[in-house]
Design brief:
Elements (H helix, E strand, L loop, with lengths): L4 E2 L7 H30 L2 H8 L8 H22 L3 H4 L1 H10 L2 H10 L7 H10 L1 H17 L2 H29 L6 H4 L3 E5 L2 E5 L3 H4 L2 H14 L2 E2 L6 H4 L6 H31 L11 H20 L1 H22 L9 H37 L5 H27 L1 H16 L3 H23 L8
Parallel strand pairs: 1-4
Antiparallel strand pairs: 2-3
Amino acid sequence: MSSRELKQWNPEDEAFWSSQGKAIASRNLWISIPCLFLSFAIWMVWSVVVVNLETIGFGFDAEKLFWLAALPGLSGATLRIFYAFMVPIFGGRKWTTFTTASLLIPAVGIGFAVRNPHTSYGVMLLLALLCGLGGGNFASSMSNISFFYPKAHKGAALGLNAGLGNLGVSAMQFLVPLVITAGMFSRLCGEPQICVIRGATTSVWMQNAGFVWVPFILAATVAAWFGMNDIANVKASFAEQAVIFRRKHNWIMCWLYLGTFGSFIGYSAGLPLLIKSQFPLEDPTRYAFLGPLLGAVIRPLGGWMADKLGGARVTFWNFIVMGVATVAVERALPHPGRPGDFHLFLALFIVVFIATGIGNGSTFRMIPVIFLTEWQRRTFQKGEGARMRALAESSKEAAAVLGFSSAFAAYGAFFIPKAFGSSMAHTGSPDAALYGFLVFYLTCIVLTWYFYSRKNAPMPC
C-alpha cells in the first residue's frame, strides 16, 4: 500500500484520536480548504464576468446573460451527484488531486475566450458548463473530510471546510473586479479590451478573471497529492453507497439543504445581475461579495451552534428568518410609484446570506447524527461487534448523504438566477420568484419541525 494510505482509521477511539488521529485529520482539512476555496471561485466566476461582458462589446441580451450565470450551477450540481460517491471508490487524496487540477480547464478557457468579443455564444455556454467542475468538488470534499473526524467534532470540521471553502465565492467577487484593471498577464495572454460605461472608455484585461487562478490551482494540486491521505477502511463501491436512496432521511435532508446551501449559492450567482437590473445606478461589483463573504464566514458558527444546541433547532429558526427576510426584500425593490431602497434591499439580502451560512452548518451537523442514530437503533443490545459495525456503516452512509445532498442543493445555483430571469422576462419584476422562494422556505420549516425539532419528533437531532 502507498505510504499515503491509512490502513486503519478509527477517530471515535479517544486514545487513537489524541495520539495521532487529530494531527492527521487537521492536515487533511487544511489542505482540503484551499482546494475547495478555488473550486468555489471557479464555479461562480461567471457571476462577475457576465456583468462586464456588455461593456467590452459582447452583444448578449439579459436573458442570455442570466443563462451564463445559471449554467455553472446546473452542471456543478449534476457533477456532484457523481462526485458524492467517488472518495470511497478512489480515495480522498487521489480524487482531490484530480478534481483540483481539472479547474485549470475553465480557468484557462475563460482567459482566452473573453479576449475576443466575437467569441460565439455557444463557446461561452460551454465554458459556463465547464465551470461546474468547481461546483462538483464540494460533494467529494465534504464526504472526504467527514471520514476523518469523530462525531463530536464533525460539525465544526465540516463547517470549517465548507465555510472557508465558500469564501472562494466572495473572494472571487472582490478580487476579479480588481485584477481585470491590471495588465499582469498582458505579455503572455493578450492586450486589454476597451470598456465603455455610460460613454466613458477605459482599458480592462477581462482575461485575468480566469488566468489569475492558474498558479494557485497548480499549488493546491501539488499540496493535495503530497500532503493528503487515502483511508483504506472506508472503501466502498457505488452499489454499497447507493443504499442511501432507500433512506427517507436522505431525501428530507436534501430538501432542507436545498433551502440553505441552494439559497446561498443561488443568490451568490444571481445577485449581481439582480442589482444591475433593479438598481441600474449602482455598481453590483462593489457590493455583491458582501453577502457570500458573511454567509461563508459564519458557516463554522452554524456547525458549532448545532454541536451545542442541536442542529434541528438551529435549522428551524434559520428558515423562519429566511422566510421573513425574503418577504421584506420584495418590499425594498422598485415598483411603480415606489423607487425602492437599495441599502435596505442589500441589508436584507445580507441577513438572508447570514441565515443560509448558519443553516448550512447546522444541516450538515444533522446528517451524521441522524444516520448514526438510525444504525444504533438497528443494532441496539446486539453486542460490541454490532456497535462497531454501526459506527462504520453510519459513517459511510452519512458521507454519501453529505455528498448527495450537496449535489441536490447545488441546483439552487441554476434555479435561483433562472427564476429571477424568467420572472423579469414574464412579469417585469423579480417578485414572482421571491414569492416562490417564500413558499419553499415554508415547506422547509414544516419538515424540520415535524421530523426533527418538535417534542417527540421521530428523529430528534
